Amino acid sequence: MPIPPCPPGQCPQCWTHAYDKSIHRRLAPREDCPQCVNHMVTKCGGFYRK
Ligand SMILES: [Zn+2]
Ligand SMILES: [Zn+2]
């Protein structure tokens, strides 16, 4: 299934991870995705900072 293109203003990483489940398939069951956790904690590394 193709990933819809990341709309402008969306964090590309969170977008990709939300749609491309194969990225998370590499993780152990119940293992947190470090990049997703990082973006959760840092609010996408300031991506949405105004
Ligand atoms: Zn992720
Ligand atoms: Zn993000």
Short structural summary:
The chain has 50 residues and is an all-alpha fold.
Protein architecture, described:
The protein is mainly α. The protein is flat and about 35 Å long. It is built from three helices and no strands. It binds zinc ion (ZN) (2 copies). One zinc ion binds next to helix 2 and helix 3.
Distance between the termini: 33 Å
Q: What is the overall shape? A: flat
Beta fraction of the residues? under 5%
**Biggest sheet: strands, sense, closure?**
none
How large is the count of helical segments?
3
Low-confidence stretches: none
The class by helix and strand makeup works out as mainly alpha
- Which ligands appear in the coordinates? zinc ion
What is the helix/strand order?
HHH
Helix content: 40-55%
Nearest-angstrom radius of gyration?
12 Å
How many beta-strand runs?
Answer: 0
Could you report the average pLDDT, rounded to the nearest whole number? 91
